[in-house]
Every structure is written in C-alpha cells, then in structure tokens.
C-alpha cells in the first residue's frame, strides 16, 4: 500500500527490452534506498514494482526493476527514455503519519495531457481518457470533482470533470510542481492513472445487488435490464 506522496524523483539510467518485458535501472535514488532490500516494492510513476537489484552508492544510488508486458501495456512506462525523471515512493511503513490517500500502485490506465494553463504560481492541467473498450472500460465513473486520483503516483485533488469530453482537471501548487515530474510533461504526454479503490468496491456491490454477474455491460445496462424485467412482469 502507498500514500501517493512522492518521496523522490529518480532518473532512468538503463532500459533493456526483450520479448518477455523490460528491465529498468533507476539512478539518483539514494534518498529512498537507505532501508532497501531485494524484493521491496517501490512505486515508479505510480506502478508498484519489485526491486531485483540495487546499490546505495553507485550512480547516486540505483535500483533495478522488471516490467512484464502487462505492465508495459497498461502504463506509460514503456515510453520512458534514458534520462527521464520518474516519481518514486516506497511502500507505506506502519510507523509514520499518513497523508495523501490509500493508493495500491496498481495502475488502472493512462490519460493524455490536453491542456496546461498557468494560474499565478499554480498550474492547471487537463487530462483526457482514451475511448473506452470492452477490455478497458471507462474510468470516468470513478472520477468525481473534489475526489482523489493518483497521477503518475502522486495523490492529487480533482478540480473538474467533463464526462462528455472524457476529461478531468487538476491544479498543482508551486510546491507540488517542484516535487514531482508531472509539471514538466508537455501537452500530448501520457500519464499513469489510478482511481480510488472505494469506488470500484461500490460499483461491484451495486452490480451484485442488481443481479449482474459481472460489469461487462456497465451499470447503465444492468439498470435498463432491471427496468425491462419489472415492466415485463407488469405486462407493460
């Protein structure tokens, strides 16, 4: 479990890709490696990855993670280049104060930056989700104004949602801009998105209560089916 509070920005120093996936080495990471062990979980741009090798001293401290093809397909990590900065967060400890919101670091999908508007010292960003597919349903039902969302692993507050345009907006204060990579990404760049898990549980519970075995048709389809069944029983 993670909090969505980015601890440090590391730098991609090596990328090795083969048919099975990709191996990333993240350098300049010494501040988060003091208590590191092989097998630990570190969220890289919001994706929970397992440390398979590390050094606390070389290259400003580095660690290596392996990405399966599923991870490459669901996140933007396959588009990283050597030299790119990445947001890093260690898994939660049980001894510290909690901030942000509960984040699993299991990326739900990606969105694209479609607007950047400076607002004094702050920066307003708008993101667009891709067209939904049966394999990747829309994430919009879980995105609400003033709710939380994790973008590239950073816990942020949603300032606006436009369902018709499949967009949501955020505002980054100056402090946040300096602590994460998101403020440096241009229009057209992809970001990793994780929506709140509570919304997923609520949707699953509602689907089950309506008698749906799964959510392949979405809640709208299930509600329509219930209404049709009621009308049919009444002969209407």
Automatic annotation (TrEMBL):
EC number(s) reported in the record: 2.5.1.9
PROSITE patterns attached to this UniProt entry: LUMAZINE_BIND (PS51177)
Pfam families reported for this sequence: Lum_binding
MF GO annotations: riboflavin synthase activity
GO biological process, one term: riboflavin biosynthetic process
Pathway field: Cofactor biosynthesis; riboflavin biosynthesis; riboflavin from 2-hydroxy-3-oxobutyl phosphate and 5-amino-6-(D-ribitylamino)uracil: step 2/2
Lumazine-binding repeat spans: 1-101, 102-206
Domain Lumazine-binding: 1-101, 102-206
InterPro entries found in the cross-reference section: ATP_synth_asu-like_sf, Lumazine-bd, Lumazine-bd_dom, Riboflavin_synthase-like_b-brl
Keyword line: Repeat, Riboflavin biosynthesis, Transferase
SUPFAM superfamilies recorded: Riboflavin synthase domain-like (SSF63380)
Function: Catalyzes the dismutation of two molecules of 6,7-dimethyl-8-ribityllumazine, resulting in the formation of riboflavin and 5-amino-6-(D-ribitylamino)uracil.
NCBIfam families, alphabetized: PRK09289.1, ribE
Protein name: Riboflavin synthase
Taxonomic source organism: Candolleomyces eurysporus
Organism lineage string: Eukaryota, Fungi, Dikarya, Basidiomycota, Agaricomycotina
């Amino acid at each position: 479990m993670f909090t969505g509070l980015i601890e440090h920005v590391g730098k991609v120093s090596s990328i090795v890709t083969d048919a099975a996936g990709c191996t990333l080495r993240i350098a300049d990471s010494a501040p988060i490696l003091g208590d590191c062990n092989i097998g630990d979980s570190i969220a890289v741009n919001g994706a929970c990855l397992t440390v398979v090798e590390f050094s606390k001293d070389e290259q400003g401290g580095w660690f290596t993670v392996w990405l399966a093809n599923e991870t490459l397909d669901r996140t933007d990590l396959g588009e990283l280049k050597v030299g790119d900065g990445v947001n890093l967060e260690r898994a939660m400890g049980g001894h510290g104060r909690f901030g942000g919101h509960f984040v699993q670091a299991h990326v739900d999908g990606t969105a694209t930056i479609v607007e950047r508007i400076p607002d004094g010292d702050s920066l307003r960003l708008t993101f667009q989700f891709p067209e939904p597919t049966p394999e990747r349903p829309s994430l919009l039902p879980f995105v609400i104004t003033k709710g939380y969302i994790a973008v590239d692993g950073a816990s942020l507050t949603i300032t606006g949602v436009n369902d018709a345009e499949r967009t949501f907006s955020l505002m980054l204060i100056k402090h946040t801009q300096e602590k994460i990579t998101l403020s440096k990404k241009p229009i057209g760049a992809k970001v990793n998105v994780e929506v709140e898990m509570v919304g997923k549980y609520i949707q699953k519970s509602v689907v089950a209560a309506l008698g749906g075995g799964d959510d392949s048709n979405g809640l709208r389809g299930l509600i329509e089916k219930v209404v049709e069944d009621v009308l049919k029983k009444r002969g209407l």
